[in-house]
Amino acid sequence: MRLPPLGRRPAPPSHPAFRYRRPPALRRARLGLLVLVILIGLAAAYGGMWLLIMNNLRDGAQAWIADRHAEGFSIETAGSSTGGFPWVARLVLDTPSLAPPQRPVPWAWTGERLVIEVRPLKPFEAVLRAEGRQEVAVRDGDAVRVFGGEAATLQATLRRGDGWLPPATIVVRDLQLAEGDEHLTVARLDLTGAGDPGADDNEAALTYGVVLDADGVKLPERLATPLGRDVSSVRLVADLLGTLERRPWPRVLAVWRDRGGTVEVRDLAVRHGPLRLDAVGTLALDAAGQPVGAFTARLEGFAATVDALEDRGVMRRRDALAAKVLLGTLLRRPDDGGPPTLSVPLTLQDRKLFAGPVFVYQLPPIRW
Fold first, then answer.
1. Burial (0-12, 13-18, 19+ Cβ within 10 Å), 302
2. Number of structural domains in the chain
3. How far apart are CA 163 and CA 157, in angstroms?
4. 10-residue block means of pLDDT along the chain (368 residues)?
5. Domain for residue 203, yes or no?
6. Can you give the pTM of this predicted structure?
7. Which domain covers residue 119, as residue numbers?
8. Is residue 358 part of a domain?
9. Is residue 14 included in any domain, yes or no?
10. What contacts 24+ positions apart, CB below 8 Å, involve 18-24?
């Protein structure tokens, strides 16, 4: 019999009976424990992130309110509460109200609830939702008129941006406000804005863009235009050119104007009463702070629009007759037999609107 050399251990038997195997149940238990530890760690991390977002949301809301108070705004709430874990960080403000610093106050808003939500997976996006009854008080001379009602959706989504005016989306659905026999109705409104108004000192730089789409708008009588209260649809695509600082308002408008700031209207489509208007052009401010502009426009319902303006006393009879005679020759009927259209330049100066050489309408002054 040969013995193995000294200092060397004999090799273990190769027969399977000599191999050690952990029981399957033990392996599964250890794997389950590892998964449990990982899940607990993830849950703790998520909970910590939720608390951080909730604290930032609450502190941010308080800081915003304090800043507005410093600017002279009146902001009040009846109380607040938090919640929403685990899906959202939610701050609810009860009976919030907002009024501008001007005296006497030209308008004020009061809501039943304002809900502010931030999702942990989208920490740089906040959703503000006004719920319940809404009231808007508007000064009308010495009187104050209060419009009250509700909306199916009244929501704004704010995203983190580099400027003082953050990228935002506003959604309104089925808004109905009333004060006695006066009604304000908006079936649909979508407003999107993006950019940084204070980004660049170059007057030719695009700093902020806006897209507005609205349908089914019915104005109260005091806000009605010479074409009536019903606005079937409005679409506006416009770009702000030039730097517009946040404050002091409205002096920043004069600074923006003096630097050559303009608003480029890339698409304006209005369906209002008999008028169908499609236009592109440029707006600016004159020395008195009133809008001036030049547009290239295409109109349908020209004759009916002139008649409506004359009937309401907006256009004098001789101006209405001149408009029909001078501009009527420019009417073109499409080959498909549709309504006649008029392509004409529109100019706005000294608050007077002209279609070609014909005076159309004197706009009321804007009090910034």
1. buried
2. 1
3. 16
4. 56 55 70 78 82 91 90 92 93 96 89 95 93 92 91 95 89 95 95 89 79 96 88 97 86 91 96 95 95 96 90 87 84 78 94 89 86
5. no
6. 0.84
7. 26-154
8. no
9. no
10. none
